[in-house]
Amino acid sequence: MQINRAVEEVLGEAAVELLNTLVSHVVVANPDDKAGLFYLPVEPDNWNSTMMLMREIFEAEIFVSGQTE
User: Fold this and answer.
1) Which residues 6+ apart lie within 8 Å of 39 measured at CB?
2) Is the pLDDT of residue 30 over 80?
C-alpha cells in the first residue's frame, strides 16, 4: 500500500509498516463495526514500541501538515 511520499520521507521504516498495518486493518474491518476502526490488537510485549511508533506517526502528521506545499 502506498502512502503519501512526504509522510514516508519523515517516518522510519517501522512506523511506515505500522501505518500500513493500521490502514489495512481499517480496510478489512466491518464497516458497520465502528469500534473496528479505532482498535488494533497489540500483544502486551509490543505495547511500548507500538505506542512509540504511534507517536512518531502523529508527530510526522503534524510536521507534514505544517509544511506550506
Assistant:
1) none
2) no
